[in-house]
Design goal:
The strands form four sheets. The chain has a ten-stranded mixed beta sheet, sandwiched between helices. The chain has a two-stranded antiparallel sheet with strand order 2-3. The radius of gyration is 21 Å and the shape is globular. It has 13 helices and 16 strands. Helix 2 runs parallel beside helix 13, helix 9 runs parallel beside helix 10 and helix 11 packs antiparallel against helix 12. The chain is α/β, with parallel strands linked by helices. The longest helix is centred in the middle third of the chain and has 17 residues. A hairpin with a 7-residue loop joins strand 13 and strand 14.
Length: 401
């Protein structure tokens, strides 16, 4: 029997429900491998007919430890992450630490230092999930989007500062940075991702009517790159405020969407809500060059209000895990809807494994095993056990159907 391809995965549970859905149990600060996402990934690997497996490096980067030691990551934290094949992230943020400190001390440095300049957020309505829009509830297939978020600059570039602090004339500046090479690469990625989807249509979101410098450049570079895809991918343009209306009133008109760091951050949360719950929404922070590891995380945040109650929805983490498996597997002709997988040597069976994990998730939600945010009565553990059992059912003698 061939030896499995072993992937080194850095696991950062972080804060709140991030620890429950990523690593879950803590005993005397020792992380276990009995958490939902880890359980599901290991179950998937066991069912892969020895094609792949995971070795987890559990990292205690959290707000709790920040309060104790004064930092989230140690000085060699990024160097350690670079040794991984991928990063699986739970959530960051806690009421005792200002949000700008937690984000700029952990997740944003990871995205920037590891050149994760693409943030992918697929959105669709899972079986058994009731969408809040009546039109989508009648026809769930009318909402099937892929949001491509520029993840390295724009409004989250970190440029700016405070002048005359703690005075009556205190001034705060926040600069949005748009660099031509960064725009070219995100638009090329977005067009390539749109080309892989059945409709081959890309909607560009902007606010160039009011932001007359950076966003005008954003528009101009988009249309330059669009010429490279003429006859292959159709495209249109939406102002960000009008985009919110279109997402609600005409979801079927959209397919692949590309937007700035801030705009996509906001629109993707709206998209998750329209899809049924932010608890099921995944994301992938990608370095498309594969020079550095990419990071996968649910977008629900740390949710302090439900942390520790065992009711957190793990589906967003499981869907993110499926995206990680697909990305690690690289290009595989068996992949269905391989969102953003445009480079990389294929690993046999991993694209199919990602498909089977998504199938297991959909079978479970369709069967009514759901947490309360989806109108169910199940807890985190119930959904986890159901998905693991479904993964096993979808394999026969260790091989996929």
């Amino acid at each position: 029997m061939a030896s499995p391809r072993v992937f080194q995965v850095a696991s950062i549970p972080g804060d709140g429900i991030g620890t429950e859905i990523t690593e879950a149990a803590h005993e005397e600060s020792v992380l276990t491998e009995n958490a939902p996402a880890i359980q599901v990934l290991n179950t998937l690997a066991e069912a892969s007919n020895n094609a792949f497996s995971f070795k987890f490096d559990h990292l205690d980067y959290s707000s709790e430890n920040y309060a104790k030691r004064g930092y989230y990551m140690p000085s060699d934290g990024i160097t350690r992450l670079k040794q991984s094949d991928a990063i699986f992230f739970g959530a960051v943020g806690w009421p005792s630490v200002p949000d700008h400190i937690s984000l700029w001390s952990l997740i944003l440095p990871i995205r920037k230092e590891l050149s994760q300049y693409v943030n992918l957020r697929p959105v669709r309505v899972l079986p058994g999930v009731t969408a809040p829009l009546s039109s989508v509830a009648k026809d769930p297939s009318s909402l099937d989007w892929l949001i491509v978020r520029e993840n390295s600059e724009g409004e989250y570039s970190g440029q700016g500062g405070l002048t005359h602090p703690n005075s009556p004339h205190e001034l705060g500046t926040e600069l949005a940075i748009f660099l031509r090479p960064a725009l070219e690469r995100i638009f090329r990625f977005a067009f390539a991702a749109a080309y892989q989807r059945p409709r081959r249509h890309l909607t560009m979101v902007t606010k160039s009517n009011a932001q007359r410098h950076g966003m005008v450049l954003w528009d101009a570079v988009f249309y330059e790159v669009a010429k490279e895809w003429e006859g292959k991918v159709t495209h249109d343009k939406m102002l960000v405020d009008a985009m919110t209306v279109r997402m609600v009133n005409n979801p079927a008109s959209l397919d692949t969407i590309v937007a700035t760091n801030l705009h996509a951050d906001i629109l993707s949360d709206l998209a998750a809500a329209l899809g049924g719950s932010i608890g099921i929404a995944p994301s992938a922070n990608l370095d498309p060059t594969r020079r550095y590891p990419s990071m996968f995380e649910p977008i629900h945040g740390s949710a302090p209000d439900i942390a520790g109650k065992g009711v957190a929805n793990p589906i967003g983490a499981f869907w993110s895990a499926a995206e990680m498996v697909r990305w690690l597997g690289g290009v595989d002709n068996q992949a269905r809807g391989a969102e953003g997988v445009t480079q990389g040597e294929g690993v046999k069976g991993m694209a199919e494994a990602a498909d089977r994990l998504m199938e297991a998730i959909e079978n479970v939600t369709g069967a009514g095993v759901r947490t309360r945010d989806l109108g169910g009565t199940g807890g985190t553990k119930d959904v986890t056990e159901a998905v693991c059992e479904e993964v096993k059912k979808l394999s026969r003698g260790g091989q996929w159907k």
